[in-house]
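Example: Alpha-L-arabinofuranosidase.
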Amino acid sequence: MPKTLLRAASAVLLTLTALNVPPAYAEEAVAVTVNARAALATVPATGIGANHAIWDSYLGTDDTADRLKDAGVQVLRYPGGSYSDIYHWADHTAPGGYVAPGTDFDTFMRGARRTGAQPMVTANYGTATAQEAADWVRYANVTKGYGVKYWEIGNENYGNGHYGAAWEADNHADKSPAEYARNVVAYSDAMKAVDPTIKIGAVLTTAANWPDGIVAGGDAGTWNKVVLSMAGSKIDFVILHWYPGAYDKASHISDMIQLTRRQIADHAGPGSERIGIAMTEFNTGTSGAGENTQPGALAAADAYATLLASGVFTVNWWNTHNGIGTVRQVEGHTDYGDFGLLSNASCTADGSACEPAVNTPFAPYYALQMMSRFARPGDQFVKAATGQAKVAAHAVRRPNGDLAVLLINTSADTAYPVTIGYAGFGPAAGAPTVLTHVNGATSITSSTAGSATSQTLPPLSLTTVVVRPASAPAGLPGAPGQPTTTAVTDTTATISWPAATPGTRPIVKYEVHRQNGAITEQLGETGGTSFAVNNLRPGTRYTVNVIARDSGGGVSWSSSPLTFTTGTPATSSCTVRLTDQTNWGSGYVGSIDITNNGAPINDWTLDFTWPRTWQKLDGGWNATWTQTGSNVKVVASGPLATGATTNIGFVGSYSGPNVLPSVFTLNGTICRTQ
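Written out as structure tokens, the predicted fold is:
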């Protein structure tokens, strides 16, 4: 073994011995890149959330509230999933369901206040009325002065049988998305007449999760299209739920949120940029496979960080207490198949296994606690990436100039040494503060260890490294305002932004930086507040930030990110129109119309690339279809006259957000895509 690896292995062994973790040796250090100039979303004061349920007899206890406070929970949702659509708050009943003693609304509010969390209330859509919801707002915010800001209209109402499956109560004779949208408008009007300061949320489907993409008979579009088109002007946020069923799905989040934003922009009407996105139910959703143990905790931290970095304003774990399920051994510890953060001491039906004492934290509890210590309100996420699939990285820049880096090692048997490189940030010398949670631990440990550029990650661990800057220059300019874009073509875009506030020296220029993974590519600079970018690629999603530089070389924080997608040529010798004809949530029938705008051709080849690795071709017709890697080639013989249109079709499948291909070439020429 080379001496450098021997020293690294010795450091690993010492670290693991101190933590009582079995040693395992990594072959080489993992490269982690943190780019402080590639800014993402700002951490909200509502980011870390959890759900309460009226059937949970421990909902109102002080111990529960204190546990949630210690975890850093900032939002508590009530009255609990599908129970929301059978619950009547005024008499605290839920016909057809069990209501535990001591779980009424006032008790919930007392606990939320003890926790220090903002309440989020789900009004009963399924079996109540707009008037009942308005009365609840009046009681909460006028009579009691609770100041409940966030109000959802119903819970998973697409599960009312309209698409086949029925788990959500819905007494409306019409169970279509149009009927739901009409009622959202009525609920919003009635509730805001009582308190115009509240925020109203409407239920949407989540990308690549049933019944997303499906159009039921008689509907004018998918659930999301109909609801946003009809009720978009009356809502303030949309509601997503996500149970991915696996631990490696964080890579889906960026597209999931981007597709949701595109639907909002396309269908919700003028001013739709005000509409926020809330993930009001999230859990790894793999009963008995590790949601109570460390794999579930690692997936939770990765998903929370990725969702918040993408601009979701709250992520609410399902659930605070839930109950025992399938009991298994996972990575050396008992997993109870319980979706809760805390034990409710329940037992299996045959009494063969029981959970630990009430309110004993499960591993995901520590993931939320780590998140609340890593990403604090007002911090700004910045890009971070690693060179090892088993290691995930996230980072935030704090207002005082510090950087916090969250490192997640999902390997069960390898301790990875990591080397951390920084762009746009100079770390101070000396050992940083390191927070660690390892497999089976019952707390997060804090130490001063390693360096800003070198750490060792135990197997199945969460590690937060808090790094001070080498220097903290004063008088820097403020960050530029939120950039916007106009005149987006296939190869150009004009980016504009509100001017930054000067520091002690005048601002001399602004720099526009593109995020390319965790690497920043400077697209250009200007002395003004607008810049025309050229040489872009057609059909490509770009995320950019703007920074200000003063006369002394001082650099501001990055602006908030701007994401836009280029189009295809306005004129071309060919035009392609792709439509999603029929969708079943994991696949669809695609129809492609090809129009020849140029000289007559005899034989032709159409090429395109699937945007994501989880998409594939299952078959096609009216031509010869082949797929190599992510590239699809369609070959046909026969004439295609000037002005003529031909149609081809295919069946595509997907296991993640279905980003449709947008760039097609016909005999090597990029077509205009309609």
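The first strand starts at residue 30 and ends at 42.
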